[in-house]
Amino acid sequence: MTQLQALKSVVVCADDYALNAPTSQGIVALCVLGRLSATSVMVRSPRWSEEVAALREVRDRMDVGLHLDWTSAFARAAGFGHALGGVMGRSLWGGFRHSDVRDEIERQLDAFEVHWQAPPDHVDGHQHVQQFDGLRQALCEVLLHRYGGSSKRPWLRVSQVAQAGFKARVISRMGASTLQSWTDSQDWPSVSPLLGVYGFGGSLTDYRRRMQVWLRDTPAGDKPAIIMCHPAVSALPDDIMGHARAREFAYLASHDFVHDLRDAGVCLVRASGQVLKSE
Hints:
Elements: E1 8-17, H1 21-33, E2 38-41, H2 48-56, E3 63-68, H3 73-77, H4 84-93, H5 98-116, E4 122-125, H6 136-147, E5 155-157, H7 166-173, H8 176-185, E6 190-191, E7 194-195, H9 204-217, E8 225-229, H10 242-252, H11 255-264, E9 266-268
Parallel strand pairs: 1-2, 1-8, 1-9, 2-3, 3-4, 4-5, 5-6, 7-8
Helix pairs in contact: 5-6, 9-11
């Protein structure tokens, strides 16, 4: 499928690179197959310094960005993170100290760049924290300071969720429209709407059916939408999402995914607009 033939385009982004070995292995394998066009890195993971090497081997095939993290076990172990409910509560009630948030964002960007040896292609957030009040303002300030004068600014994922459902509505209401307004006012590159939100349950067939709906709902136009995913080659016992990750990998690695893309008239692109070929 060529870009001219495709009616719609989508960035398929695998979150959580460096979370654990099966996740990183799965993301690299899917990238080689041409089934992903972006990944987001958890730089607070101690695995990042080691697993960056495998990602460098495929750096010309996908966008690689920062998965801003305030809610993972890595963030909590570092002393600044909290469970998602706690972060949402602090966001709603103004519990973040701006200077502390700004400093931590700088640290995460530094940790990305020191190992990747380049700025991130994009920035998003673990559990969508990039757009939460109290975090969003500091992120925008840091991005302007670090990359505002660059000809290639990192694109932002705006989690304006395209699907119905309670969880999707909550995500969208936690700052998506405000972040989108900021990107528009600054002429900052962004990608939305976001598809791929679900409860991580169900069978392999269920996941395929969901993907078919997301591909069907991908809007036509000059700008791509984004589908997030969380694949891994296998499930680890201590990963509550492990079985969902393995199911996602199995589907994305299959010919069914290629067929579903073609049937929906969708092509995979990087945010720069480069069309990818599925092998």
